[in-house]
């Protein structure tokens, strides 16, 4: 018995395949971001952020396309709708495989994004501590003014702290 694939099924599968590919690309950008954060190459981050934003927009468009396709076929336009579609079309193994790939990749992307958030927090804490050290902390001696000139010794002397 031959299995006939309908045009909506083909379009749906193509959308899922494109979505899986885009999530894989997003993971690649998250990995680059993680490398930049962990090696201190923060000058690379703005370009990565721009690329991530563009890819996020592409992912949103593909999700909207997927949901529209589901709605046109009488399914809920959400994750439950995809599960229902797959349950109603068990012969469409390629679609199910693409959907499972998307779920797996999305989970990986979420974890990478979480780790990158932790790296960003660590970098921010490091920068705050470095800035505090450069500024001399709360109990700093105001030896120099904002203009870089030494302040008059009448305000505070180093020996006053001893």
From TrEMBL:
Superkingdom = Bacteria
Which GO biological process categories is it annotated with? bacterial-type flagellum assembly
Q: Which UniProt keywords apply?
A: Bacterial flagellum biogenesis
Q: Where is this region: Disordered?
A: 142-162
Q: Which family does it belong to?
A: Belongs to the FlgN family.
Q: What does this protein do?
A: Required for the efficient initiation of filament assembly.
Q: What is this protein called?
A: FlgN family protein
What organism is recorded for this protein? Answer: Candidatus Propionivibrio aalborgensis
